[in-house]
Structures are given as structure tokens and as C-alpha cells.
Design goal:
Layout: H1 4-15, E1 28-31, E2 34-37, H2 42-50, H3 62-75, E3 85-89, H4 95-102, E4 106-111, H5 114-123, H6 128-131, E5 132-136, E6 142-146, E7 151-155, E8 169-175, H7 177-180, H8 183-196, E9 197-210, H9 224-227, E10 237-247, E11 254-263
């Protein structure tokens, strides 16, 4: 007989898979006291999704992306038609990246799964080879740049130090990334974002509000206090606004909640 303990990882995988936006211990590693993200089973998950398998956590609804961008522009001190530099960590093939680009913004996405970023590049048009140029990153991985000069995709570990991104972004768009991370992963993740965001830059973050199983994940139940722990965003960001439910989910017992944070001034 198969034990419940043996089945649990599989159940988590089916309902909220181990991907660039969904972490379990199999996707993490520590090397010389440095936490890194490994590809683990994420590549196979993406192949299944892209071959017509279950969508899992994905929201392929442009209206949801439009709402997110509206919340972002409302939260910034610039006018709605002023281009923003937007970072999308652990992005998968999230349509928000292309949508924000189509509205004139400068977008950068980071993900470790090549197939996910390949799918994202095709959102920009079929001329993949002509429209995108790739170079090797100094930290390993590949950097893809679009011919427009306003879209960059980092194929690699989100937790790597990237000096070229220091204080570069007006906005971070985080859809479910924080809430998919295990507790020990939140500090290095938030540390990187604090390095990449400009002073007074904002974080737009979407998280899950769960009716039950709040201590288990991923996805984890996340509220304001979780976001603002000193070892999470609280060390460098101020809480600005609770957006409430940003759009309905087809996942029983869960609500998609939005929050706005702001990067404090650097000392």
C-alpha cells in the first residue's frame, strides 16, 4: 500500500506544480551556504503544459494582465503613458510581459526554464531568430534581447547576483512567486528584488488567500504580515496598499489577492 506521505509530493505537483512559479524542496539547492534555484522537474512540467496538458496555476487572461498594469501605473508617481522599467521574476511565459511591452514599457523577465521563455518569445511574433539575439550571461545562463530594445529575458537563476540590474527597475510584477516559495527561500528572493528595484520603486504582488490548509503549500496562504516580515519584504520595503481580490480563480477555496509595496530610500 502507498502511504499518504508518499503521495503528498505528487498531489502537490498535480494541483500546483514544481515550476518557475511553484517551488518545493526538489527545486532548491545550497552550495557553499548559497541558496540557488535548480531546474528540477520544472522542465517536464512546462513541456506538459505547452503540449496541451493542464494549465495548473497559469492565468491566460489578457484582461487580468490589463488590470495588473492599471494597478501598477496607478501606484507609480508617473503618468499612465510614461514608460516604466518592469521586472518580472520567475515569470514562466506570463502574458503580462508581452502585454506591458505592447503598451510601451520596458520589460525584463527572469526564469530558469528554457521552454517557458521560448514560449514567451513567440508571443512577440513568429520571427524568433530575427527578432531576438542571445548572449551568454556572466553568471551562467543566456540573456535574450528583443530587437525593439525594450524586452530582455534572463534564462537562469533568479537568485544570482546581477550587478548590471542594480537599482534598475521602477516596478516588480510578482504573480504568485513569493507565495510559491518555501519560507527559507523568501529572504534571498526579497534580497535580490531589493537590489534590483530603484529607491521608491514599487512591487505589485499577487498571492493566494486560502480558506483551508493555510500552513501547507505551495501555494502558501499569504497575508500582509507575511509579506512584511523583516526577513521578507519588510527589511527594505514599505507597505502601501491592499488591493483586495484582483480577479476570480477557478480554484476552489482560493482567492487571488493583490498588494502594493514601495522600496525605501537607500541609506
Amino acid at each position: 500500500m502507498i502511504s499518504i506521505a508518499a503521495l503528498l509530493p505528487l498531489l502537490l505537483f498535480v494541483t500546483y506544480p514544481q515550476t518557475a512559479q511553484s517551488f518545493t524542496s526538489g527545486g532548491l539547492s545550497k552550495q557553499r551556504n548559497k541558496t540557488i534555484i535548480k531546474m528540477g522537474g520544472w522542465s517536464e512540467t512546462w513541456k506538459d503544459i505547452l503540449n496541451g496538458g493542464p494549465k495548473r496555476w497559469k492565468i491566460d487572461d489578457v484582461e487580468a494582465k490589463q488590470k495588473a498594469l492599471t494597478h501598477i501605473t496607478d501606484a507609480t508617481s508617473t503618468s499612465s503613458d510614461t514608460p516604466l522599467r518592469i521586472l518580472c521574476p520567475l515569470a514562466g511565459d506570463d502574458q503580462f510581459v508581452h502585454y506591458a511591452w505592447s503598451q510601451g514599457h520596458d520589460v525584463t523577465a527572469i526564469d530558469i526554464v528554457p521552454d517557458a521563455l521560448k514560449a514567451m518569445r513567440f508571443q512577440f511574433g513568429e520571427n524568433n531568430k530575427e527578432d531576438w539575439a542571445s548572449t551568454s550571461s556572466n553568471n551562467g545562463g543566456i540573456v535574450w534581447k528583443h530587437k525593439s530594445g525594450r524586452a530582455t529575458l534572463y534564462e537562469g537563476d533568479m537568485l544570482m547576483k546581477r550587478p548590471e540590474l542594480q537599482s534598475s527597475f521602477d516596478v516588480v510584477y510578482d504573480k504568485d512567486s513569493f507565495g510559491a516559495l518555501s519560507l527559507e527561500m523568501r529572504q534571498p528572493y526579497c534580497q535580490r528584488l531589493s537590489e534590483f528595484v530603484k529607491s521608491n520603486g514599487i512591487v505589485y504582488v499577487e498571492v493566494k488567500n486560502k480558506e483551508s490548509g493555510r500552513k501547507f503549500g505551495p501555494p502558501y496562504h499569504v497575508e500582509r504580515n507575511d509579506l512584511m516580515e523583516e526577513t521578507s519584504f519588510g527589511g527594505a520595503f514599505d507597505y502601501v496598499n491592499a488591493l483586495g481580490e484582483v480577479y476570480p480563480l477557478n480554484m476552489g477555496g482560493m482567492r487571488q489577492m493583490g498588494h502594493i509595496l514601495r522600496r525605501g530610500l537607500r541609506k
